[in-house]
C-alpha cells in the first residue's frame, strides 16, 4: 500500500511498539512523555496550549495532567495573568524521569529505524519535521 496516511500510521505503530517498553520502565506512557517533553521545553505552559500542541481535547489533557501530577512529575499552579487558567511545570522528579525516558525513546527509535541507512534515517526525520511544522491548507 502506498497511501501516505497508511504508511504514516504503520510507521507510527512500529515506533510506538519500539519505545513503549522503555517508557514503561521509566514509569510513563507515550502521551505522558509528549506532555512532559513539551512542559520541560516550553517552561511553564498552560493546559490549553499543551492540549492544542499535542492534539488532544481538554478532557483528555486534564486526565493526562492528573496522571502526571499524581506521579509527582508535573505541578499545576495558577496563571498569575489569568486566574482561571493553570500553568504546568516539570518537577525535579519529572525532569529525571524525562532524562531516562529520552534515553529509552532514542534506543527504541534506533531499533525502529534499523533497516534504514543513517542518511535515510536523517532524511526521513528532516522530511517529517518539515511536514509537522507546515501550516495546514486554509490556515
Give a quick precis of the structure.
The chain is α+β, with helices and mostly antiparallel strands. The chain is built from six helices and three strands, in the order ααβααββαα.
General description of the model:
This protein is of the alpha+beta class and 139 residues long. The chain has a single domain (4-133), classed as Arc Repressor Mutant, subunit A (Orthogonal Bundle). Helices cover 68% and strands 12% of the residues. It has helices at 4-26, 30-42, 47-54, 58-70, 92-112, 118-133, and strands at 45-46, 74-79, 82-90. Strands 1-3-2 form a 3-stranded antiparallel β-sheet. β2 (74-79) and β3 form a beta hairpin. α1 packs across α5 (92-112), α2 (30-42) crosses α5 (92-112) and α3 crosses α4 (58-70). 19% of the residues are buried. The mean pLDDT is 89.
Amino acid at each position: 500500500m502506498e497511501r501516505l496516511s497508511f504508511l504514516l500510521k504503520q510507521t507510527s505503530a512500529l515506533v510506538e511498539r519500539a519505545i513503549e517498553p522503555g517508557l514503561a520502565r521509566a514509569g510513563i506512557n507515550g502521551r505522558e512523555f509528549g506532555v512532559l517533553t513539551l512542559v520541560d521545553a516550553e517552561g511553564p505552559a498552560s493546559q490549553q496550549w499543551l492540549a492544542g500542541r499535542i492534539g488532544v481535547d481538554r478532557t483528555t489533557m486534564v486526565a493526562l495532567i492528573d496522571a502526571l501530577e499524581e506521579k509527582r512529575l508535573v505541578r499545576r499552579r495558577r496563571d498569575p495573568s489569568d486566574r482561571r487558567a493553570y500553568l504546568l511545570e516539570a518537577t525535579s522528579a519529572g525532569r529525571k524521569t524525562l532524562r531516562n525516558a529520552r534515553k529509552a525513546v532514542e534506543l527504541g527509535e534506533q531499533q525502529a529505524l534499523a533497516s534504514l541507512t543513517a542518511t535515510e534515517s536523517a532524511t526521513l526525520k528532516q522530511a517529517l519535521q518539515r511536514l509537522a511544522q507546515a501550516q495546514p491548507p486554509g490556515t
